[in-house]
Amino acid sequence: SGEKIIKEDIPRFSNLHAIKNWRRKLYNSWIQDNEPFELDNNRWNSVTHYYQASKFKENNPDYYSSFTAGSGSALSKNVDLAKAAGSTNGKHNGKIIRPKEITIDPTFYGKRKDKVLEEALYAKFSQIPEMKYLLLETKDALLHHYKKGSKPIINEQLMLIRENLKPI
Questions:
Q1: What is the model's pLDDT at position 143?
Q2: Which of 32, 69, 76, 163 could be disulfide-bonded to 36 (CB atoms 3.0-4.6 Å)?
């Protein structure tokens, strides 16, 4: 996976080894079984769901709501569908899943997108005890996002949230 750890540090991170799929759980697309987080008076199955929904919050609030865990919609249960619905073309596997008249809010890609992501990450890791424990167990490790075929990207937001969640 491209991770590097010096031999002396292995014991410091041994608690992570006991958490199944701990790396995947750090991802925005992870759905924690039956444990949605709350944000904007709604429950969300993943950070991705909230992020994609937020693209429609101002101009299409009903469509925004279809991403919530409480809606029970296909969008609310499937991360790939949510990503596709929030994409510029609204297609999943070549099929249009977002009505053409529903467009992404023009203000989303300004300053709002970063704030939306930060709020969702904070909600996930502060409200779900297992997620908080997991993030704190990464200690002071440099957290990267790995994507096949691309260079790893340092996940600054996740490390900042980890810092803010540390007990005083």
A1: 93
A2: 69
